[in-house]
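Figure caption, in words: inputs first, then the predicted bound structure.
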Amino acid sequence: MSLAALDRLRKQLDGLSDQDLLRQRRLLQSAQGVRIQFDGNPVLSFCSNDYLGLAQHPALATAVCDALPLMGLGAGASHLVIGHHAAHRDFEQAFAQFCDLPAALLFSSGYMANIGVITALVGRSGEIFADRLNHASLNDAAILSRAKFSRYAHNDMVALERLLSSSRAAEKIVAVDAVFSMDGDLADLPRMLELCETYDAWLLVDDAHGFGVLGANGRGAVAHFGLASPRIIYMATLGKAAGVSGAVVAAQHEVIAWLVQKAKTYIYTTATPPVLSAALLASLALIAAADDRRAHLRRLIVQLRQGLQSQGWPLCDSMTAIQPVIIGGNAATLALGDRLLGQGMLVPAIRPPTVPRDSARLRISLSAAHSEADVAQLLTALAAAA
Ligand SMILES: Cc1ncc(COP(=O)(O)O)c(C=O)c1O
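Bound structure (pyridoxal-5'-phosphate present):
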């Protein structure tokens, strides 16, 4: 076919391939977990965000099976028509209580939650302040909002203060990954909250990688730092440590009431299957009681970091389950990933534009479902692949 637009796409795809930037989908042929079947082979995986190992937990499957005959599968309508099920409401109430915040709202995904919150709270007269390493969904939300989009160097609180102090915007929101998704380090939430208080801004905390893992009972990064403020809008994704799907935003009653009126990614989409909310309720109980899993995960993180250090790999400033090994070049990172795969170990190679240029990396993610022997096996494989 000689459509010019198709030729252009073909050339662009070839260009990505030439730069080792072509992304491939891997075919998972088992349940998500640490021992998975992919492309016909069994591997030990260090890829998923299933940090507590709950995705396969029987209590979640049982919750879905028990709820299915009562609720059916599809929600059939958006929340504001007739898709808002008692199961959604029950989970929202339980989550708000769990996080000690007045109210919560369930979204279909973290991507949609970030877009919904930011576009509902700031418009043309507003300004969004964002860390350069924030997740793509926060960046897209900022662009879609038409507000001024001011980015500062990673974790640079002096630069953030400079931007806030010179802002003339009517509404301001500081939006940040609490745990940076490709680096694993923490945002300086205490300082950010101080700045938000001084300069009258909202603080949107995207806790995709902290909820379930950090803080007392897994309440997340805000609890980890012991913070509380009506300015905080807390967003947790539910497809990672919670082992299910979706996202939830918790904040003051007025914020949630406003989101119900104005967040388009909440309003103009079919509600998630209510059985997922039944599973989420079960997951919340598991998370609250998962101190053993969190302690085991912390031990694995220390074991991995000590092993990486003794082999001379560059370590990132991360004490979370996300442990990147920055290699730099795309081809070298892919080659290292392939050598690990040859030893039965699956570790994703993350390349630009997900990470900045020349900082391609292996993103090792640990789960409480890994054993110490699994981590030792990865370290042996890394030594052999180096
Ligand atoms: C920091 C961060 N925010 C938001 C998201 C999006 O969440 P979801 O997968 O639920 O769309 C992700 C990853 O998926 C993430 O890493």
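The domain at 58-288 is CATH 3.40.640.10 (Aspartate Aminotransferase; domain 2).
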